[in-house]
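Entry for 1,3-dihydroxyacetonephosphate complex. Fields follow.
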Amino acid sequence: MLKEIVLKNRNVREIILEMAEIAGYLWERGWAEQNAGNISVNITDILNRENLQIPDGSMVPFPEKKKYALGGNVFIMTGTGTRMRDLARNPEENICIIRIDNSGKGYSHLCRCRETSILQPTSELPTHLTIHEMLLKKDPARKILVHTHATELIALTQIPGMQSEKALNRVLQGMHPETVIFVPEGMGFVPYTLPGTAKIAQLTCKQLETHPVVMWEKHGVFATGKTVSEAFDAIDLLSKSAQIYFYSRQAGIEPEGLTEEQIAEIRKNYGKG
Ligand code: 13P
Ligand code: ZN
């Protein structure tokens, strides 16, 4: 019954289809080996609450007595261990829909999307929920989070001297004017931290308060957006810059990059100066 209500909601369906479309692009880009990456969407506002009989589902408590200010919020998430290429083909079998308990101390599964078993949410759940908690307070229009292993960007963080926000953005913004125009804040940067932990959640959340995308050193990227496509576009754009950098290096040159003056001119002309 709940499954019918949630999955047949036209707006929810559209989001699931967009998740599937973008999951296919992540796979095609080579950023989604095995189960790499995860996506979450806060769908609380788009569910018609009157039609939604929320049951007292059995609550899965968050580890270490963690409490999120997200009581009653509902999320679509990729299941842990699922493949983006499978999500692209068969979205319903590779997502779970969870509702945060009113106490904020755990979650319950809103519906059994996969017939045979209940999928557990992504192992990066602490990061997703910590960021959604912040976005709800500071920028509620941004309801989407995408984590992916964007190869070109990860490779940049393997280069000594490139492991800082300043160094990364200087290179990326110098490779293409569009990067300056569309990601004027540049990328945030989180030094290597164990995935799936409260620590990486806190560090990432802080960076996403002021950036649309964050680089996880030697691991991947985390992006926010109003739509799944918007989050993907920002990663795609930054990745293009990284590719130009590596193509130049492969051709045997250290790329010149745009000058400080050229970058300032772009910012001035596109109202970001
Ligand atoms: P999940 O399969 O648990 O989402 O993990 C993928 C990943 O990229 C972890 O950083
Ligand atoms: Zn990852």
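NOTE: The first helix runs from residue 2 to 8.
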